[in-house]
Amino acid sequence: MDRKVILYIASSLDGYIAKPNDNLDFLSIVEKEGEDYGYASFIKSVDTVVLGRKTYDWIIAHVPEFHHADKKTYIITRTARPDEGNITFYTEDLKDLILKLKSETGKNIFIDGGAEIVNELLKENLIDEFVISIIPILVGDGVRLFKDGRPEQKLTLISTKQFETGLTQLHYKRIDN
């Protein structure tokens, strides 16, 4: 089982991935021509993407085309829908899906959000690595990246990168107990 489950996500310094009403405008403060914060390199290391239906709906509403169309993608949802190309609308148990994917041969598995998916996976200790880009802002309210009520998990720091825009990227790996 050498496939890793990697959370790659941006957060405000105070731990929010969205402001109220799923407002992500604070992410634009670090936009810089020609800077992708390592995303292009990261995305080459994955062949499977897992995200929640709310995150998917936001992407579809704000981006001209789904940017993971070339990857096997699982949208975690409670409402069954027919598959669309490489996209599977998955209504079964998330833990079962992740364990199945990890047992298969392939590249890494990208957890693209949102908070419900992240926290369900944390409760099951199923995220292997965390790449969290900290946006230099305190938004004060919204959707928390990490919710209370999950087990403690020890991490080891792989790397930190700081960028001219003030964004700091933290890369951690879970220490298996």
From TrEMBL:
Pfam families: RibD_C. Residues 3-167 form the Bacterial bifunctional deaminase-reductase C-terminal domain. It comes from the Bacteria. InterPro entries: DHFR-like_dom_sf (IPR024072), RibDG_C (IPR002734), Riboflavin_Biosynth_HTPR (IPR050765). This is Dihydrofolate reductase family protein. It comes from Sphingobacterium kitahiroshimense.
